[in-house]
Design a protein that fits this description.
This is Alcohol acetyltransferase. This protein is an alpha+beta fold. The chain has 12 helices and 16 strands. The radius of gyration is 22 Å and the shape is globular.
Length: 477
Protein backbone atom coordinates (compact mmCIF):
# COMPACT_ATOMS: atom_id res chain seq x y z
CA UNK A 1 0.00 0.00 0.00
CA UNK A 2 1.34 3.44 -0.95
CA UNK A 3 2.16 5.83 1.83
CA UNK A 4 -0.34 8.71 2.08
CA UNK A 5 1.07 11.90 0.64
CA UNK A 6 1.70 14.91 2.86
CA UNK A 7 -1.03 17.55 2.92
CA UNK A 8 -0.64 20.14 0.19
CA UNK A 9 0.19 23.61 1.43
CA UNK A 10 -2.05 26.45 0.25
CA UNK A 11 -1.51 30.12 1.03
CA UNK A 12 0.34 31.18 4.20
CA UNK A 13 -1.64 32.42 7.16
CA UNK A 14 -1.88 36.18 7.51
CA UNK A 15 -0.83 38.10 10.61
CA UNK A 16 -4.26 37.96 12.25
CA UNK A 17 -4.60 34.27 11.31
CA UNK A 18 -1.19 33.50 12.81
CA UNK A 19 -2.29 35.40 15.89
CA UNK A 20 -4.95 32.72 16.41
CA UNK A 21 -3.03 29.68 15.18
CA UNK A 22 -0.04 30.30 17.45
CA UNK A 23 -2.37 30.84 20.41
CA UNK A 24 -4.25 27.61 19.72
CA UNK A 25 -1.08 25.56 19.43
CA UNK A 26 -0.16 26.74 22.94
CA UNK A 27 -3.67 26.24 24.33
CA UNK A 28 -4.15 29.98 24.83
CA UNK A 29 -7.25 30.43 22.64
CA UNK A 30 -9.18 27.47 21.28
CA UNK A 31 -12.37 28.30 19.43
CA UNK A 32 -15.33 30.56 18.80
CA UNK A 33 -18.87 29.19 19.15
CA UNK A 34 -22.15 30.35 17.61
CA UNK A 35 -25.30 28.30 18.17
CA UNK A 36 -28.80 28.75 16.81
CA UNK A 37 -32.09 27.28 18.02
CA UNK A 38 -34.13 25.83 15.17
CA UNK A 39 -37.83 25.32 15.58
CA UNK A 40 -39.01 22.03 14.08
CA UNK A 41 -36.05 19.61 14.47
CA UNK A 42 -34.61 18.34 11.20
CA UNK A 43 -34.10 14.63 10.39
CA UNK A 44 -30.48 13.42 10.31
CA UNK A 45 -30.39 13.17 6.51
CA UNK A 46 -31.49 16.77 6.05
CA UNK A 47 -28.87 17.99 8.53
CA UNK A 48 -26.15 16.01 6.75
CA UNK A 49 -27.27 17.28 3.34
CA UNK A 50 -27.44 20.90 4.47
CA UNK A 51 -24.04 20.68 6.12
CA UNK A 52 -22.57 19.08 3.00
CA UNK A 53 -23.81 22.01 0.93
CA UNK A 54 -22.04 24.50 3.15
CA UNK A 55 -18.79 22.55 3.14
CA UNK A 56 -18.87 22.38 -0.66
CA UNK A 57 -19.63 26.10 -0.94
CA UNK A 58 -17.23 27.44 1.70
CA UNK A 59 -13.48 26.94 1.14
CA UNK A 60 -12.54 27.59 4.77
CA UNK A 61 -14.60 24.59 5.89
CA UNK A 62 -12.34 22.22 3.94
CA UNK A 63 -8.83 23.28 4.89
CA UNK A 64 -6.47 22.32 7.69
CA UNK A 65 -3.42 24.16 9.02
CA UNK A 66 0.15 23.01 8.38
CA UNK A 67 2.85 23.99 10.87
CA UNK A 68 0.34 25.57 13.19
CA UNK A 69 2.88 26.14 15.95
CA UNK A 70 5.33 27.89 13.65
CA UNK A 71 5.77 31.41 12.29
CA UNK A 72 5.23 30.12 8.76
CA UNK A 73 1.97 28.18 9.03
CA UNK A 74 -0.01 27.49 5.84
CA UNK A 75 -3.55 26.38 5.19
CA UNK A 76 -3.63 22.83 3.84
CA UNK A 77 -5.78 21.17 1.19
CA UNK A 78 -8.05 18.48 2.69
CA UNK A 79 -9.23 16.39 -0.28
CA UNK A 80 -11.75 14.32 1.71
CA UNK A 81 -14.09 15.54 4.45
CA UNK A 82 -15.95 12.90 6.42
CA UNK A 83 -18.83 14.78 8.02
CA UNK A 84 -19.17 12.05 10.67
CA UNK A 85 -15.91 13.35 12.16
CA UNK A 86 -17.38 16.85 12.48
CA UNK A 87 -21.00 16.19 13.46
CA UNK A 88 -22.50 14.75 16.62
CA UNK A 89 -25.81 14.78 18.47
CA UNK A 90 -26.33 15.26 22.20
CA UNK A 91 -29.41 15.32 24.38
CA UNK A 92 -29.99 17.35 27.51
CA UNK A 93 -32.68 17.17 30.18
CA UNK A 94 -35.71 19.19 29.15
CA UNK A 95 -37.05 22.02 31.25
CA UNK A 96 -35.67 24.96 33.16
CA UNK A 97 -32.06 23.83 33.04
CA UNK A 98 -31.91 23.17 29.30
CA UNK A 99 -30.57 26.61 28.31
CA UNK A 100 -27.84 26.33 30.93
CA UNK A 101 -27.02 22.96 29.40
CA UNK A 102 -26.53 24.60 26.00
CA UNK A 103 -24.20 27.10 27.66
CA UNK A 104 -22.36 24.11 29.07
CA UNK A 105 -21.90 22.69 25.58
CA UNK A 106 -20.38 26.03 24.55
CA UNK A 107 -18.02 25.85 27.53
CA UNK A 108 -17.06 22.27 26.63
CA UNK A 109 -16.22 23.39 23.08
CA UNK A 110 -14.06 26.22 24.41
CA UNK A 111 -11.99 23.77 26.44
CA UNK A 112 -11.16 21.47 23.49
CA UNK A 113 -8.06 21.55 21.33
CA UNK A 114 -8.42 20.68 17.65
CA UNK A 115 -6.89 17.27 16.73
CA UNK A 116 -5.14 16.32 13.48
CA UNK A 117 -5.27 19.94 12.44
CA UNK A 118 -3.26 19.51 9.22
CA UNK A 119 -5.63 16.89 7.81
CA UNK A 120 -8.95 17.54 9.57
CA UNK A 121 -10.61 20.96 9.18
CA UNK A 122 -10.86 22.43 12.69
CA UNK A 123 -14.58 22.91 13.14
CA UNK A 124 -17.47 20.91 14.59
CA UNK A 125 -21.26 20.93 14.71
CA UNK A 126 -23.11 19.56 17.74
CA UNK A 127 -26.88 19.14 17.43
CA UNK A 128 -28.35 19.48 20.93
CA UNK A 129 -31.93 18.39 21.68
CA UNK A 130 -34.11 18.09 24.80
CA UNK A 131 -34.56 14.49 25.88
CA UNK A 132 -38.32 15.04 25.71
CA UNK A 133 -40.53 17.70 24.20
CA UNK A 134 -41.18 20.58 26.58
CA UNK A 135 -44.94 20.90 27.22
CA UNK A 136 -46.41 24.01 25.63
CA UNK A 137 -43.35 24.67 23.43
CA UNK A 138 -42.82 23.95 19.76
CA UNK A 139 -40.19 21.20 19.32
CA UNK A 140 -36.72 22.56 18.70
CA UNK A 141 -33.02 21.76 18.58
CA UNK A 142 -29.85 23.83 18.97
CA UNK A 143 -27.17 23.62 16.29
CA UNK A 144 -23.84 24.49 17.91
CA UNK A 145 -21.10 25.56 15.47
CA UNK A 146 -17.56 25.76 16.90
CA UNK A 147 -14.48 26.66 14.89
CA UNK A 148 -10.79 27.59 15.00
CA UNK A 149 -10.48 31.37 14.82
CA UNK A 150 -7.83 31.20 12.08
CA UNK A 151 -10.53 29.94 9.69
CA UNK A 152 -13.10 32.66 10.19
CA UNK A 153 -14.56 35.29 12.49
CA UNK A 154 -17.85 35.90 14.28
CA UNK A 155 -19.49 37.50 11.24
CA UNK A 156 -18.73 34.30 9.31
CA UNK A 157 -20.28 32.25 12.11
CA UNK A 158 -23.50 34.25 11.83
CA UNK A 159 -23.44 33.67 8.06
CA UNK A 160 -22.95 29.94 8.71
CA UNK A 161 -26.22 29.74 10.62
CA UNK A 162 -28.06 31.90 8.07
CA UNK A 163 -26.85 29.69 5.22
CA UNK A 164 -27.47 26.49 7.18
CA UNK A 165 -31.08 27.57 7.77
CA UNK A 166 -31.50 28.29 4.06
CA UNK A 167 -30.00 24.91 3.14
CA UNK A 168 -32.22 23.04 5.63
CA UNK A 169 -35.29 24.65 4.12
CA UNK A 170 -34.14 23.72 0.62
CA UNK A 171 -33.04 20.09 0.93
CA UNK A 172 -35.44 17.18 0.96
CA UNK A 173 -36.52 15.99 4.40
CA UNK A 174 -35.86 12.39 3.32
CA UNK A 175 -32.35 13.10 2.06
CA UNK A 176 -29.86 10.26 2.37
CA UNK A 177 -26.56 11.85 1.35
CA UNK A 178 -23.11 10.32 1.62
CA UNK A 179 -21.27 11.64 4.68
CA UNK A 180 -17.95 11.55 2.82
CA UNK A 181 -17.26 14.51 0.53
CA UNK A 182 -14.49 14.51 -2.06
CA UNK A 183 -12.56 17.65 -3.05
CA UNK A 184 -9.68 16.53 -5.29
CA UNK A 185 -8.88 20.07 -6.40
CA UNK A 186 -7.52 22.58 -3.87
CA UNK A 187 -9.95 25.38 -3.05
CA UNK A 188 -9.49 29.01 -3.95
CA UNK A 189 -9.20 30.65 -0.54
CA UNK A 190 -10.26 34.14 0.51
CA UNK A 191 -7.24 36.40 0.49
CA UNK A 192 -5.41 37.43 3.63
CA UNK A 193 -6.93 40.46 5.31
CA UNK A 194 -3.89 42.65 4.71
CA UNK A 195 -3.94 41.75 0.99
CA UNK A 196 -7.44 43.08 0.31
CA UNK A 197 -7.61 46.08 2.64
CA UNK A 198 -5.59 49.16 1.53
CA UNK A 199 -3.88 49.82 4.86
CA UNK A 200 -1.76 52.90 5.42
CA UNK A 201 0.48 53.79 8.37
CA UNK A 202 1.19 57.40 9.29
CA UNK A 203 4.60 58.54 10.52
CA UNK A 204 3.08 59.55 13.86
CA UNK A 205 1.45 56.12 14.30
CA UNK A 206 4.66 54.25 13.52
CA UNK A 207 6.69 56.57 15.73
CA UNK A 208 4.42 55.91 18.69
CA UNK A 209 4.71 52.16 18.17
CA UNK A 210 8.49 52.29 18.04
CA UNK A 211 8.59 54.51 21.13
CA UNK A 212 6.27 52.25 23.11
CA UNK A 213 8.25 49.17 22.11
CA UNK A 214 11.83 50.35 22.47
CA UNK A 215 12.03 53.50 24.58
CA UNK A 216 13.53 53.03 28.08
CA UNK A 217 10.88 52.56 30.74
CA UNK A 218 12.09 55.55 32.77
CA UNK A 219 11.32 57.85 29.83
CA UNK A 220 7.76 56.64 29.37
CA UNK A 221 4.79 57.72 31.45
CA UNK A 222 3.42 54.98 33.67
CA UNK A 223 0.27 53.36 32.37
CA UNK A 224 -2.84 54.14 34.45
CA UNK A 225 -3.74 51.29 36.79
CA UNK A 226 -6.79 49.36 35.62
CA UNK A 227 -8.73 46.32 36.80
CA UNK A 228 -7.90 43.32 34.64
CA UNK A 229 -8.68 40.24 36.70
CA UNK A 230 -5.93 37.88 37.76
CA UNK A 231 -2.56 38.14 35.97
CA UNK A 232 -1.85 35.94 32.96
CA UNK A 233 -0.94 32.45 34.15
CA UNK A 234 -0.22 29.73 31.60
CA UNK A 235 -0.33 27.12 34.38
CA UNK A 236 -3.91 27.93 35.36
CA UNK A 237 -6.22 25.10 34.23
CA UNK A 238 -8.29 25.97 31.15
CA UNK A 239 -11.85 25.74 32.54
CA UNK A 240 -14.29 27.72 30.44
CA UNK A 241 -17.39 29.19 32.02
CA UNK A 242 -20.36 30.51 30.01
CA UNK A 243 -23.38 32.43 31.28
CA UNK A 244 -26.11 33.45 28.83
CA UNK A 245 -28.37 36.47 29.35
CA UNK A 246 -31.57 36.30 27.30
CA UNK A 247 -33.24 39.62 26.51
CA UNK A 248 -36.69 39.53 24.90
CA UNK A 249 -37.50 41.16 21.57
CA UNK A 250 -39.70 43.75 23.28
CA UNK A 251 -36.88 44.79 25.61
CA UNK A 252 -34.43 44.90 22.69
CA UNK A 253 -36.82 47.18 20.79
CA UNK A 254 -36.76 49.57 23.74
CA UNK A 255 -32.96 49.40 23.86
CA UNK A 256 -32.76 50.29 20.17
CA UNK A 257 -35.21 53.17 20.43
CA UNK A 258 -33.67 54.63 23.58
CA UNK A 259 -30.13 54.24 22.20
CA UNK A 260 -31.05 56.15 19.07
CA UNK A 261 -32.61 58.95 21.10
CA UNK A 262 -29.37 59.23 23.11
CA UNK A 263 -27.05 59.10 20.04
CA UNK A 264 -25.84 55.66 21.11
CA UNK A 265 -26.20 52.08 19.87
CA UNK A 266 -27.05 48.73 21.43
CA UNK A 267 -23.36 47.79 21.35
CA UNK A 268 -22.23 51.00 23.04
CA UNK A 269 -25.07 50.73 25.56
CA UNK A 270 -23.93 47.24 26.56
CA UNK A 271 -20.41 48.60 27.00
CA UNK A 272 -21.80 51.30 29.32
CA UNK A 273 -23.91 48.79 31.27
CA UNK A 274 -20.88 46.57 31.81
CA UNK A 275 -18.96 49.61 33.03
CA UNK A 276 -21.72 50.51 35.49
CA UNK A 277 -21.93 46.94 36.76
CA UNK A 278 -18.18 46.49 37.21
CA UNK A 279 -17.71 49.91 38.81
CA UNK A 280 -20.40 49.23 41.41
CA UNK A 281 -19.43 45.62 42.11
CA UNK A 282 -15.63 45.88 42.37
CA UNK A 283 -14.13 48.02 45.18
CA UNK A 284 -12.27 51.18 44.18
CA UNK A 285 -9.01 49.91 45.65
CA UNK A 286 -9.14 46.90 43.29
CA UNK A 287 -10.49 48.71 40.24
CA UNK A 288 -9.46 52.36 39.98
CA UNK A 289 -10.17 52.39 36.22
CA UNK A 290 -11.09 50.13 33.29
CA UNK A 291 -10.16 49.61 29.65
CA UNK A 292 -12.61 47.84 27.35
CA UNK A 293 -12.50 46.93 23.67
CA UNK A 294 -14.95 46.47 20.81
CA UNK A 295 -14.08 44.34 17.75
CA UNK A 296 -15.69 45.30 14.47
CA UNK A 297 -16.09 44.02 10.94
CA UNK A 298 -13.51 45.17 8.38
CA UNK A 299 -15.33 43.86 5.29
CA UNK A 300 -16.59 47.34 4.30
CA UNK A 301 -12.94 48.37 3.79
CA UNK A 302 -12.08 45.62 1.32
CA UNK A 303 -10.81 46.99 -1.98
CA UNK A 304 -12.22 46.33 -5.42
CA UNK A 305 -9.24 44.07 -6.09
CA UNK A 306 -10.66 41.36 -3.79
CA UNK A 307 -11.52 38.20 -5.72
CA UNK A 308 -15.30 38.43 -6.32
CA UNK A 309 -15.60 34.63 -6.34
CA UNK A 310 -14.67 34.42 -2.65
CA UNK A 311 -15.37 37.96 -1.47
CA UNK A 312 -18.36 36.87 0.62
CA UNK A 313 -16.84 33.59 1.79
CA UNK A 314 -16.22 32.80 5.44
CA UNK A 315 -12.97 34.49 6.43
CA UNK A 316 -11.20 36.50 9.12
CA UNK A 317 -11.67 40.23 8.54
CA UNK A 318 -11.70 42.13 11.84
CA UNK A 319 -10.20 44.92 13.87
CA UNK A 320 -10.99 46.50 17.24
CA UNK A 321 -10.83 49.73 19.16
CA UNK A 322 -10.21 50.43 22.84
CA UNK A 323 -12.24 52.52 25.28
CA UNK A 324 -10.58 54.10 28.32
CA UNK A 325 -12.68 54.66 31.45
CA UNK A 326 -10.42 56.69 33.75
CA UNK A 327 -10.58 56.88 37.53
CA UNK A 328 -12.69 60.04 37.63
CA UNK A 329 -15.36 58.48 35.40
CA UNK A 330 -15.41 55.27 37.44
CA UNK A 331 -15.54 57.18 40.75
CA UNK A 332 -18.58 59.11 39.52
CA UNK A 333 -20.47 55.84 38.97
CA UNK A 334 -19.66 54.70 42.51
CA UNK A 335 -21.02 57.73 44.34
CA UNK A 336 -24.15 56.98 46.40
CA UNK A 337 -26.00 59.90 44.80
CA UNK A 338 -24.81 59.16 41.25
CA UNK A 339 -27.28 59.91 38.46
CA UNK A 340 -26.87 56.47 36.98
CA UNK A 341 -29.14 57.09 34.00
CA UNK A 342 -27.24 60.19 32.91
CA UNK A 343 -23.85 58.52 33.41
CA UNK A 344 -24.76 55.35 31.54
CA UNK A 345 -26.07 57.30 28.56
CA UNK A 346 -23.02 59.57 28.67
CA UNK A 347 -20.69 56.58 28.39
CA UNK A 348 -22.88 54.87 25.79
CA UNK A 349 -22.69 57.97 23.59
CA UNK A 350 -18.96 58.30 24.22
CA UNK A 351 -18.30 54.72 23.13
CA UNK A 352 -20.50 55.19 20.07
CA UNK A 353 -18.58 58.36 19.17
CA UNK A 354 -15.27 56.52 19.56
CA UNK A 355 -16.46 53.71 17.30
CA UNK A 356 -17.70 56.19 14.71
CA UNK A 357 -14.45 58.14 14.81
CA UNK A 358 -12.35 55.01 14.46
CA UNK A 359 -14.49 53.73 11.60
CA UNK A 360 -13.94 57.03 9.83
CA UNK A 361 -10.14 56.79 10.02
CA UNK A 362 -9.77 53.17 8.92
CA UNK A 363 -7.98 51.54 7.22
CA UNK A 364 -5.28 53.95 8.35
CA UNK A 365 -3.15 53.20 11.40
CA UNK A 366 -4.66 49.83 12.27
CA UNK A 367 -2.48 47.75 14.64
CA UNK A 368 -3.99 44.58 13.14
CA UNK A 369 -2.03 45.31 9.96
CA UNK A 370 1.24 45.19 11.91
CA UNK A 371 0.78 41.64 13.21
CA UNK A 372 2.45 40.42 10.02
CA UNK A 373 5.71 41.93 11.23
CA UNK A 374 5.89 39.66 14.29
CA UNK A 375 8.58 37.16 13.34
CA UNK A 376 8.84 35.17 16.58
CA UNK A 377 5.42 34.30 17.93
CA UNK A 378 6.80 31.92 20.55
CA UNK A 379 8.71 34.78 22.16
CA UNK A 380 5.74 37.10 21.74
CA UNK A 381 3.48 34.82 23.79
CA UNK A 382 6.04 33.64 26.36
CA UNK A 383 6.72 37.24 27.42
CA UNK A 384 3.11 37.60 28.50
CA UNK A 385 3.13 34.88 31.15
CA UNK A 386 2.82 36.27 34.70
CA UNK A 387 2.10 39.75 33.35
CA UNK A 388 -1.01 41.85 34.01
CA UNK A 389 -3.63 41.89 31.29
CA UNK A 390 -3.97 44.89 29.00
CA UNK A 391 -7.73 45.21 29.26
CA UNK A 392 -10.78 44.70 31.45
CA UNK A 393 -13.33 43.18 29.07
CA UNK A 394 -14.39 42.88 25.43
CA UNK A 395 -17.83 43.41 23.91
CA UNK A 396 -18.28 41.69 20.55
CA UNK A 397 -21.59 42.39 18.81
CA UNK A 398 -22.74 40.72 15.59
CA UNK A 399 -26.13 42.42 15.33
CA UNK A 400 -29.28 40.71 14.11
CA UNK A 401 -29.47 37.67 11.86
CA UNK A 402 -31.20 38.02 8.51
CA UNK A 403 -34.72 36.60 8.16
CA UNK A 404 -34.70 35.77 4.45
CA UNK A 405 -35.06 31.99 4.61
CA UNK A 406 -38.79 31.22 4.80
CA UNK A 407 -39.62 27.65 5.68
CA UNK A 408 -40.34 25.34 8.55
CA UNK A 409 -36.82 25.54 10.02
CA UNK A 410 -36.85 28.92 11.79
CA UNK A 411 -34.27 30.32 14.22
CA UNK A 412 -35.71 31.55 17.52
CA UNK A 413 -32.59 32.01 19.70
CA UNK A 414 -28.87 32.44 19.13
CA UNK A 415 -25.90 32.28 21.49
CA UNK A 416 -22.48 33.64 20.51
CA UNK A 417 -19.51 33.11 22.82
CA UNK A 418 -15.84 33.97 22.58
CA UNK A 419 -13.02 31.70 23.64
CA UNK A 420 -11.27 32.00 26.96
CA UNK A 421 -8.55 34.59 26.37
CA UNK A 422 -5.64 33.29 28.40
CA UNK A 423 -3.49 36.25 27.33
CA UNK A 424 -6.32 38.73 26.85
CA UNK A 425 -9.19 40.30 28.73
CA UNK A 426 -10.47 38.45 31.79
CA UNK A 427 -13.97 38.11 30.34
CA UNK A 428 -15.91 38.85 27.19
CA UNK A 429 -19.54 39.55 26.39
CA UNK A 430 -20.59 38.37 22.92
CA UNK A 431 -23.91 39.59 21.58
CA UNK A 432 -26.17 38.54 18.71
CA UNK A 433 -29.89 38.67 17.94
CA UNK A 434 -32.19 36.09 16.41
CA UNK A 435 -34.39 37.07 13.44
CA UNK A 436 -37.27 37.48 15.91
CA UNK A 437 -35.38 40.32 17.59
CA UNK A 438 -34.57 38.49 20.83
CA UNK A 439 -30.98 39.13 21.92
CA UNK A 440 -28.65 36.90 23.92
CA UNK A 441 -25.43 38.06 25.55
CA UNK A 442 -22.93 35.27 26.10
CA UNK A 443 -20.52 35.98 28.96
CA UNK A 444 -17.41 33.79 28.89
CA UNK A 445 -14.42 33.58 31.23
CA UNK A 446 -11.87 31.19 32.67
CA UNK A 447 -12.50 29.90 36.18
CA UNK A 448 -9.98 31.47 38.54
CA UNK A 449 -9.37 34.61 36.47
CA UNK A 450 -12.53 36.31 37.69
CA UNK A 451 -14.96 35.11 40.33
CA UNK A 452 -18.14 33.26 39.52
CA UNK A 453 -19.96 35.69 41.81
CA UNK A 454 -18.79 38.71 39.83
CA UNK A 455 -19.84 37.21 36.50
CA UNK A 456 -23.20 36.13 37.88
CA UNK A 457 -23.65 39.67 39.19
CA UNK A 458 -22.84 41.10 35.75
CA UNK A 459 -25.44 38.82 34.17
CA UNK A 460 -28.04 39.90 36.73
CA UNK A 461 -27.23 43.57 36.14
CA UNK A 462 -27.48 43.33 32.36
CA UNK A 463 -30.91 41.74 32.63
CA UNK A 464 -32.13 44.09 35.36
CA UNK A 465 -30.90 47.30 33.69
CA UNK A 466 -32.40 46.44 30.31
CA UNK A 467 -35.70 45.20 31.76
CA UNK A 468 -36.14 48.38 33.83
CA UNK A 469 -35.31 50.51 30.80
CA UNK A 470 -38.11 48.78 28.89
CA UNK A 471 -40.62 48.96 31.71
CA UNK A 472 -39.93 52.45 33.08
CA UNK A 473 -37.59 54.24 30.68
CA UNK A 474 -34.94 54.33 33.43
CA UNK A 475 -32.14 51.99 34.48
CA UNK A 476 -32.83 52.56 38.17
CA UNK A 477 -36.58 53.17 38.60
Amino acid sequence: MAEPSSPRALRPLSGIELYSSTRHSRGLYRCVVFSARYLHPAPPGAILAALGRLVAAQPMLRVGILGEDTDSAHFSHVPEVDLRRHLETRTLPAGAGYDAGVSGVHAWCHDQLWPDIATRPPWRVIVVRPETNIPGEEPFEDVVFAFHHSLMDGTSAKKFQEQFAAALNDVSSDSDPSPVLQFPDPPVLPEAQEDVIPYTNSTLFMGRLVWNEYAPAFLKAAKPAIWSGEPIDFALPHRARVRAVDISAAVVASMVAQSRSHSASVTSLIQALCLASMARRIPAEDAPAFTASTPFNMRPYMSATANPAVRDSFRVCISETAHEFPAAAVDALRKPDADLDALIWHHAKQVKDELRTRAGTLPADDPINLLRFILDWASHWSKKNDQPRDGSWEISSLGAMRNDSPGQYRISRVLFTNSIMVTGQPFSVSVASAPSGALTAGISWNAGVVSEELMEGLAEDLLAYTTRLHETGSFTA
